[in-house]
Amino acid sequence: MSTPVVVPRERALPDSPLAKVQAGIDACVHCGFCLQACPTYLTLEDENDSPRGRIVLMRSLLEGTLTPTNDSVETHIARCLGCRACETVCPSGVPYGHLLEATRATLARSRPIPRIARAILAVFSRRSLLSLAMFGGRVMRATGIARLMSGLPGRIGFAMAMLTSTDRASSSSDEPGEYLSRGNGTRGNVSLLTGCVMEGLFAGTNAATERTLAVNDYLVARPAGQVCCGALHAHAGDDEAACELARSNIAAFEREQCDYVCVNAAGCGAMMKEYGHLFADDPEWHERAKTLSAKVRDVTELLSVAGPKRGGSVPIRVAYDAPCHLLHAQRVSSPPLDVLRAIPDLELVPLVESDVCCGSAGIYNLVEPETSNVVLDRKLENIEQTNADVVATGNPGCMMQIGAGLVRSGSRKSTVHLVDLLDRSYRRAARDSDGKRGGRAK
Amino acid sequence: MAATSVASAPSVSATSSIDQALADRLAAIVGARRVLFRPSELLTYTADALPSYFKQPALAVFPGTRDEVVAVVRELAACGVPFVPRGAGTGLSGGALADGVVLVGLNRLTRVISVDPDNMMATVEPGVVNVALSRAVGAYGLHYAPDPSSQAACTIGGNVAENAGGPHCLKYGVTTNHILALEVILPSGEIVTLGGTDGENEGYDLVGAFVGSEGCFGIALAITVRLSRNPEGVRTLLADFMSIDAAAQTVSAIVATGIIPAALEMIDQATIRAVESSIYAAGYPTDAAAALLIELDGAIAGLEHDVETVETLCRANGARTVRIARDEVERTRLWQGRKKAFGAMGRVSSHLVVQDAVVPRTKLPEVLAQIHRVSQQNRVKVCNVFHAGDGNLHPNIAYDASDADETARVHVAMREIMTLCVDAGGTITGEHGVGLDKIAYMELIFSPESLAAMCTLREVFDPERRSNPGKVVPVHSCREWHMSPAARPSASLA
Ligand SMILES: Cc1cc2nc3c(=O)[nH]c(=O)nc-3n(C[C@H](O)[C@H](O)[C@H](O)COP(=O)(O)OP(=O)(O)OC[C@H]3O[C@@H](n4cnc5c(N)ncnc54)[C@H](O)[C@@H]3O)c2cc1C
Ligand code: SF4
Ligand code: SF4
Q1: Residue A29 CA: which ligand 1 atom is closest?
Q2: What share of chain A is helix, strand, coil (3-state, %, to 5)?
Q3: How far apart, in whole angstroms, are the C-alpha atoms of residue B352 and residue B371?
Q4: Confidence at B291, pLDDT banded by 50, 70, 90
Q5: Is the CB of A227 within 6 Å of ligand 3?
Q6: What ipTM was estimated for this complex?
Q7: Which long-range contacts does A253-256 make (Cβ < 8 Å, 24+ apart)?
Q8: CATH of range A307-429; options 3.40.50, 3.30.2220, 1.10.260, 3.30.70
């Protein structure tokens, strides 16, 4: 029989963010059900790189067996993608995402966040720097410099391949055909989070989001004063910056008094749905944060409750890769498929492990390139097994990560935001009914 | 869920030879990344899925291919170092814990070596996950029948070592009924093939001896399993009852008809509530005292008749409602709830002990009543979820381990439950194995002679007792242990 052990009540790191999530750590029964869901375990094959193993490390920090400066803790916590696939399978309800953020925030107190991560986060915190960076990105994309450099080894080459892939993705919305983008507006007022990367590199998708929502009877606005959602900061353990950005957004979206906040980047949507949790200990902001979080919807959630309305034929084969922050963090699984299925003649082809992370994970691919690459390679292999023309997903990070992998491997497939596919369908419908422009196939 | 850090001091004298030099030699075989030597990185390997015991391995090594396993075992044999095989670490008896010795992880050996759909068999490496095997052969309309609730995580190697069971083993038999042949590396480094693929093999049933040997007979390198054809039809029923007794009576009544359900599981109220508050919520009624999950399968002809018979029996024995899963989605949901029940218990309290005992099925109502009494007397919360069809009980107790008084009461209750199961003519493990956890109970049910015989059998495979030392049979039962190696009867496999 199992001998019950008595564990001491005293804890190391009493005032740390980690101590606050002790109950979540205790909920882990060590059953191992999460192992096969974890992309880093599947690729690195060491339990230290699994949810169960990482929770052991977290618990050891609280018990004082390990200290925050321990190298193993640093390594294995840093290697976590934060994809939260472990949460979706955990029978015990371990809130792994919260545990991870609390751990990173605790570690950040004794060890600075890695330099490259700090640099990127700083850019995302300041609007002027961010605009400049996105402008630079677009210039390199437009001039072909990005493509030229995309074959270079290391982080630079990969970043350039990411940029190049956004060119392919955004050109998918260059389909000719205009359509009257107004429905009757009866489904409510929607405020769009334009997003840093979405507006910077996928402006076409933001426009497509507005058009498709309007067709489906929403009234869409872009509130002024909105900033980065803060997800990248929170994931890295930079709580303060995350809260500051969140406060700006709460204020900006409150002014609009909308029914819904629409997000077309799964990572940002997951973050905004968690603003309530972020301010759990802040009486001044907690209610306001919760109210905003309750209004946040992924664009596919809004579209799927509206049908979405049918458009014209888009005869291509599409593999859907679920963004982790949509599937696992927001638990939104069928709306994206509803949207794709609503497109006439679009063939949805099965993708093995479509519920497993691609290795993008915010800025992970730039901070932990090695692990990111092995995770990506597995994804690319699965994609190559399909006969899909394009890979549809719903998060800029995933589009660029998979897109870069496809560019670098010389694949003919590319990535696309699924809203762009719906948009294309509506354009075709408009064109077909117009009659004048028919006959131009994809 | 419990403390991770109660690492005990290495207890085996061979530890002295587990040093950097050995680590280096192993790294030369498997690569430096695949040898863990730092205590901080060994922490997660100090427990399996029963976090009541923590034993720190001196070193852990993770070979990636069959040849690497062979080289590792031969290296360990050359320097006389004991080792413990580990699959996915989902064991519930502390079997895969290495106390100051070398842990050999087999989780990287995940290749399905061959599938022979015509002869309904497949050969796999030991690290293949149970469901992955069924998935790999699904296209042929086949599956691997033994389905432990942990099938999404546990490995075939671990299943072989524990002779794992599962809900569907009531009708289809446990692991040992599905293993045709094994390629095994003995602790000495010698490779032997046990059994064969052409049916009955001459001589002793050595496969039968190895299956359930809990890692004490060496490492399974390749496992040839029998595959089963997917049944033509499957019907899944959920019946709920207002008393445990009524549910238990129903179990007996069903079995008495001669119908053999594919599965017959009982879930009590506390468990139902834990499941229903988890992401695996299956729609079990939370106000019922107990529910039975009954699956019937086979040829379509006759199946509906069986379903009707069982449904009538349930109602006659007091079932409040009987629900039949309409489609595969609902069926999966009902099963997911059951299979994730143990994990869901994690939300009840911060710590959990899991028990595994078997009682004669006819004694179920009586034993369940006694367990209830024990839990009340000791003021502990016993949840029960188990394979009712074969009398295999899994009482679990959720508790707060930082409360010394409660912990002590849990300890007493568990002991009493175990004793009453044995007194009812039952035994101390149904499927989780003896490992470390049940060792103290072996003498409750086996005579010293039987235990000594087990030692003798072990000596055939592992005369130096280097594979999974200190597990299954209490060391003092093995009288020869204290003799010099030379005095031990020499034994080898013919
Ligand atoms: C939630 C949950 C539900 C469970 N339900 C069931 C159930 O329904 N039925 C059931 O029977 N069990 C069940 N178990 C227990 C456990 O999953 C099984 O015992 C399983 O067979 C262990 O497999 P593993 O790969 O995790 O092995 P491990 O736990 O890693 O090891 C178990 C034993 O096998 C040995 N071993 C591992 N691989 C090899 C190999 N290749 N060669 C030789 N020895 C080896 C180890 O030394 C150890 O002694 C459950 C566990 C959990 C956590
Ligand atoms: S599935 Fe949940 S409870 Fe089980 S080991 Fe993983 S995190 Fe812990
Ligand atoms: S968040 Fe993803 S990478 Fe991290 S432990 Fe969970 S499943 Fe693994």
Answers
A1: 53
A2: 55, 5, 35
A3: 17
A4: very high
A5: no
A6: 0.88
A7: A253/A191, A253/A223, A253/A226, A253/A292, A253/A295, A254/A288, A254/A292, A255/A223, A255/A225, A256/A189, A256/A191, A256/A221, A256/A223
A8: 3.40.50
Q: What pTM did the predictor assign?
A: 0.89
- Judge residue A222's burial from the number of C-beta atoms within 10 Å of its C-beta, 0-12 exposed, 13-18 middle, 19 or more buried: middle
User: Is some CB atom of chain B closer than 8 A to the CB atom of A71?
Assistant: yes
Chains A and B form CB pairs within 8 A to the count of 170
Q: Please state the φ and ψ torsions of residue B361, each to the nearest 5 degrees.
A: -60, -35
Q: What is the pLDDT of residue A360?
A: 87
pLDDT score of A120: 83
Q: What are the domain boundaries of chain A?
A: 19-108, 307-429
Query: Residue B186 C-alpha to ligand 1 middle, in angstroms?
Result: 20
pLDDT category at A213 given cuts 50, 70, 90 is very high
Q: pLDDT tens digit string along B438-479? A: 888 888 888 888 889 999 999 999 999 999 998 888 767 665
SS3 content of chain B, % helix, strand, coil (to 5): 40, 20, 40
Q: What is the DSSP string of A306-352?
A: T-PPP------EEEE---HHHHTSS---HHHHHHHHTSTT-EEE--T
Contacts of B87 (CB under 8 A, 6+ apart): B96, B106, B107, B126, B127, B154, B155, B157, B158, B161
Averaged pLDDT for residues A46-54: 97
Spacing, Cα B91 to ligand 1 middle (Å): 4
Task: Give the pLDDT band (50/70/90) at residue A4.
Answer: low
Query: Does the pLDDT of residue B11 top 60, yes or no?
Result: no
Please report the pLDDT score of residue B173 as a whole number: 92
**C-alpha–C-alpha distance, residues B397 and A295, integer Å:** 41
Higher pLDDT: A335 or A237? It is A335
Distance of CA B310 to the CA centre of its chain: 29
Gap between the Cα atoms of B130 and B214, Å rounded? 17
Ligand 2 atom closest to Cα of A50? Answer: 6
Cβ contacts (< 8 Å) between B44 and chain A: which residues? 47-48, 50, 52-53, 56-57
B145: CA distance to ligand 2 center in Å? Answer: 25
Residue predicted with more confidence, A46 or A136: A46
Q: Do A36 and B108 make contact, defined as CB atoms within 8 angstroms? A: no
What residues are in contact with ligand 1 under a 6 Å CB criterion? A 31; B 48-49, 84-92, 95-96, 106, 126, 148-150, 154-155, 157-159, 161-162, 164-166, 214-215, 219-220, 342-343, 431-432, 468
Q: Which residue has better confidence, A414 or A165?
A: A414
Residues A56-72: what's their mean pLDDT? Answer: 93
- What integer pLDDT is reported at residue A95 of this predicted model? 95
List all residues 6 or more positions away from B201 whose beta carbon is below 8 Å from its beta carbon.
Answer: B195
CA of A29 to the centre of ligand 2 (A): 6
Lowest mean pLDDT among A83-87, A148-152, A278-282, B26-30: A148-152
CATH 1.10.10.10 matches A19-108:
no
Q: What CA–CA distances, in Å, run from B327 to A341, B2, B141, B236, B266?
A: 22, 39, 18, 9, 21
Q: How far apart are CA A223 and CA A248, in angstroms?
A: 12
Q: Do A91 and B277 touch (CB under 8 A)?
A: no
As given in the structure block, the two tokens for residue B491 are: 């034994």
**From the candidates B43, B93, B155, B414, which should be mutated to test the interface with A, based on the most A CB atoms within 10 A?**
B43
The bridge status of strand B319-324 relative to strand B233-241 is antiparallel
Residue with token string 């034994």: B491
- Domains, chain B, in order of start with CATH, read 120-229 (3.30.465.10), 233-343 (3.30.70.2190), 349-423 (3.30.70.2740)
Give dist(CA B245, CA B365) in Å, integer.
5
